[in-house]
Structures are given as C-alpha cells and as structure tokens.
Amino acid sequence: MGKFFTILDLGVASINKNMAVLGMILGVVLAFMNVVMRYIFDSSFTWAGELTNYLFMWGALFGAAYGFKKGIHISVTLLLAQLPPAIGKALLIFAHTLSFIYLAAMSYFGYQLVLIIAEFDEMSVDLNIPMWIPNLVLPLAFGAAAFRAGEKIYEVSITDADEVMKKEEEELIHDTSEIRGADV
User: Fold this and answer.
1) Which of 3, 23, 25, 134 is the most exposed place for a label (fewest CB within 10 A)?
2) Residue 45 sits in which domain range?
3) Cα distance between residue 8 and residue 161, in whole Å
4) Using CB atoms within 10 A of its CB, is residue 90 exposed (0-12), middle (13-18) or buried (19+)?
5) Residue (of 105, 95, 78) closest to 156 by Cα position
6) Partners of 130 in the beta sheet?
7) What are phi and psi of 21, to 5 degrees?
8) DSSP for 13-41?
9) CB atoms within 10 A of CB 58
10) How far apart are CA 70 and CA 90, in angstroms?
C-alpha cells in the first residue's frame, strides 16, 4: 500500500508542478506575442487575452496546490513554539484538517460548477470552447491541494510530537534566515 501512495504522491506532484510551470510560461509567451503583434504589426490575436487569463488561472491554482507539497504557504508558528509538543501537534493536525475540509469542499463545489456550466452549454466568447473546460481547474487543483492537506494530516499524525515541533522550529529558522539573507 505504501508503494501505491508513493506513486500517487509523485504523480500528483508532477501534475501540479508541470501544470503550474506550463500555465505560467505559455501565458507569458502568449501575452508577449500579442503585445508584439499589437505594437509592431498593428494587429493582435482576439482570443489571446482570454486564453492568457485561463493559462494564468491554471498555473496559479496548480502552483498553489504544489505549494502544499513544499510547505511554502504562510503559517504562523509563533504560538506553537510556546506550547507543549503534544498540544502543538494537536493544533497542527486541527489546522491541516480545517485546510483539508475547506479544500475538499472547494473541489466538490468546483465540480458542481463544472456540471452546471456543462449543462447550460455555456461557451467562451473569444475561444469558442465550452466554459466547463477552463473551469475544470477548480475541482482538479483544489482536489490536488486537498490531497496534500490530507497527506500533511497523516505525516503529522504518525510523527512523534517532539519531532513535529522540532521540524516546525527548523522550518521557521530556515525561513527567517532566507528572509534575512535576501535583505542583505
């Protein structure tokens, strides 16, 4: 069973990272091409603005889902350092559980939105594609982020409370030293 979750973990991470990078790169390239077309050739792609928006939306949401894997989202750990390790661990599990519930709900409601949009046969204005296609990012990206939050719940649950708190302190020290290094 562990091998299955390892493969699933790698697959989700790969999809999140590649979709984030691809969305951002294609969005920037398309926006740049459209600006060049507009100012040098006095014409532009009418559909480029809409597609650029969708590419950035996909890139940002999949990038945020990937951020859960890397632990790069904002967290306030000042209070955790002052608490006994067992209580700190319980609070971390609680916080990750709240995140999981929120992200899973967003994924579910995103799926419901996609179904409604598909039922209405809504089409995009410039690209002339069904609107459920660009909105498919909502259930997919939020589902991937919920998977990551669930993964964090599991990781914290099986780790000894002292180790959990030590890891949180190390991450805080590492983040602080990176910030100070950037200011120098």
Assistant:
1) 3
2) 2-183
3) 27
4) middle
5) 95
6) 123
7) -65, -45
8) HHHHHHHHHHHHHHHHHHHHHHHHHHHHS
9) 22
10) 21
Query: Nearest Cα to 8, choosing from 109, 148, 128, 159?
Result: 148
Contact 137/58 with Cβ under 8 angstroms? yes
Strand, coil or helix: what is 84? coil
Beta strands in the chain (DSSP E): none
Number of structural domains found in the chain: 1
pTM for the full predicted model: 0.80
- State both tokens at 43: 């014409």
pLDDT tens, residue order, the chain (184 aa): 567 777 887 888 888 888 899 999 999 999 999 999 999 999 989 899 999 999 999 999 999 888 877 766 666 666 777 888 888 889 889 999 999 999 999 999 999 999 999 999 999 989 999 999 999 999 999 999 999 899 889 988 988 888 877 776 666 555 545 545 554 4
